[in-house]
Amino acid sequence: MKFNSNIFEEVFERLRAQLPSNLVYHNHAHTRFVVEKADFLAVQENLGVADRNLISIAALYHDTGFLLDRENHEEMSCDLARKELPDHGFSEPEIQTICGMIMATRIPQQPHTIQEKIVADADLFYLGTDDYELFSTKLYKELKYLDPKMDDIAWLKIQNKFISSHTYHTTYGKTVLEPVKKRNVAALKVN
After folding, report:
1. How many domains does one find in the chain?
2. Which end of the chain is more exposed for a tag (fewer CB within 10 A), N or C?
């Protein structure tokens, strides 16, 4: 693999310029966050540079499918990766690995490899942070745009069910993020 760092700014700029403005959660800032957290988790898992590079590219592409459509965006993200990554020097096996990581972000998450577990955990890292409410509010606004009838009660029920059924997959996720997530779940039940 010939790693080209320009790909990050190209994709971030395309997401910033082309995603619909109603995507206040699934936007370029979310992608930057996921790339950052994926690399952080890869370091925590002691992965080498080659794995970290593939993980970063998977995190970068994981929501590019939103450029095309909300439904099945993971598959569309893989389609874009398959189309674009060969021009950046990625081999077919590397692209397959990247697509496996992208598909691991689909809800309900079912990652198998450590790389898939890292990208899955990075995508939902916020659930186990003190910034949960900030990110959750953005997601609520985005979903309310799609379903204006959704109210706060319905949203709390959705969030409670989702966050209660979620599990982290990496060591860091299980040991550091999970306890904070449990506090966030408890706070949801109080509301």
Report:
1. 1
2. C
| The two structure tokens encoding residue 58 | 């998977």
Q: Which residues 6+ apart lie within 8 Å of 73 measured at CB?
A: 63, 65, 66
Contact 132, 182 (CB under 8 A): no
Those residues whose C-beta lies under 8 Å from the C-beta of residue 136, and which sit 6 or more positions away, are 126, 159
Q: Does any domain span residue 1?
A: no
Instruction: Give the domain range for residue 160.
Output: 6-190
Q: Are 116 and 99 in contact (CB under 8 A)?
A: no
Task: Characterize 144-168 residue by residue with b for buried, 16 or more Cβ atoms within 10 angstroms of its Cβ, and e for exposed.
Answer: beeeeeeeeeebeeebeebbeebeb
- Which residue ranges of the chain lie beneath pLDDT 70? 1-5, 190-191
> What does the pLDDT read at residue 82?
98
Is 0.70 topped by the overall pTM? yes
One-letter amino acid of 18: Q
162 assigned to some structural domain: yes
Closest CA to 34 of 104, 109, 124: 124
Position 96 scores a pLDDT of: 98
Asked, as a colleague might, if the bond just before 93 is cis with ω within 30 of 0, I would say no
| 164 within a domain of the structure (yes/no) | yes
